[in-house]
Design a protein that fits this description.
The chain is of the alpha+beta class. It has 16 helices and 18 strands. It is globular. It binds pyridoxal-5'-phosphate.
Amino acid sequence: MNQSNTPLLQAVTELIETKPAYFRIPGHRLDKGVSSRWTDQVGTAIFAYDVTETPLTDDLHSPEGAIGEAQRLLGELYSADQSFFLVNGSTCGNEAMIISAAFEGEKIMIARNAHKSALMGLILSGAEPVYVMPEVIDDWAIQGEIAAEAVRKAFAENPDCRALFLVSPSYYGICSDLRAIADICHEYGALLLVDEAHGGHVYFHDRLPAGALEAGADVCVQSMHKVTGALTQSSVLHIKHHGVGESVLERIAQNLQLVQSTSPSYLLMTSLDCARYELARNGAKMMEKALHLAAYARHRICKISGFRCMEGERLDRTRLVISAGNIGLTGYALEKILFEEYAVNMELSDYENVLAIVTYANEIEDMDKLVAACAEISGRYAGRDALRREDSYPPFPQLPQQVMTPRRAYFSAAETVCWQEAAGQIAGQMIAPYPPGIPVIYPGERISQAVWDYIECFRRDGRQIHGAGPNGRLDWVKVIGTETKSCKNAIDEI
Ligand SMILES: Cc1ncc(COP(=O)(O)O)c(C=O)c1O
């Protein structure tokens, strides 16, 4: 195929060039009807590309023209057997993978550091999750890879799992040994489903870790908006046949219709077409630049007193995990200072670290600004005591007891109790500190004291928690089958 083509961009352009009398959706009539409040700031040209299905522009849910060709070009670039555009982010791709892989009553293995979209997939599917815990990197107080040995042990105990779903690279850029893990999955006749939301770029440079498809995954999902030039929400799903679960793979296209809009945005899809084009032409150069910029900053930050920057094997080295814990700054404090005082926007923070995602579109000035800010902060906080281990959040809790499947719990009648009374109860909802949006408790699990203590740290410190009530605070929580009523009045008042 000719990777210099951008069939969807071409099709939409052709449509616009017909200067149509336009009576379709969307109502803004190409570049005419969007509020001037906005067009005064950004111009009108881009809005003409916000069109819909026409004989020229094809249909995402039944692609036979430009979208079909654009998806085939994408598949060729990633050496996939089939590739799909996703307009609801990797979230919908993860959901489709899980609902395709395991029906109600069947087992599916899920890495416990999975993004909350895996839970949404479990709720939709009704499958019974078997969890596998990630390693913990004590030095940085973050979750690490999923060890192949842990996967082998889990399959030995649950040989009937239909698939393993895991995240690699993680948000922090940590990759699992996917080759070894794929072999184990296939030994058990199970599919390897990889949430590669953070890894769509790793295929384009040999100093980046191996991509999931290269390592033997059967299906993977990539947020092209996170790491390449596609617009927010634009993701892709790839299938590679390994002779396992063929009927599952056939279900994916159908299930993508279940979780995606019937009005997919042509802006998003065209951005995917163009992002693929750039990667095909310049992928290696783009990643070389990102690696160079990250190495430049890592090297300098490591020399700043009180600062550290994570190194390691199987690490996507375009991610910078930075800690200033040695001068008493939590990641939360450092992120706030960087944002408010230096206009340096980090992707996220945790108790110990801040995370920067470096891409080909950053410039050396960005890196210099980050490094200079860190150097100045180091001077300001020099001499402060290091963060005390005993003050930090407790370690990631062990797996809580699963009393019922997430789906059953999610659709069970639940009562609302005060958070203070939640320990020991069966959760009727997920609770996921955000970012990174990894549920600490899934619906249907008993809230152990260790889980409660862990979540309480986030609650106490006013951190954002997904699953909290409308005021954003976890004052109460939905539980199943409780006798506790003593908080009712307090809840009514809220
Ligand atoms: C590991 C992981 N998977 C999936 C998602 C969801 O991706 P999207 O935002 O493209 O829906 C995220 C979002 O941050 C994520 O971090």
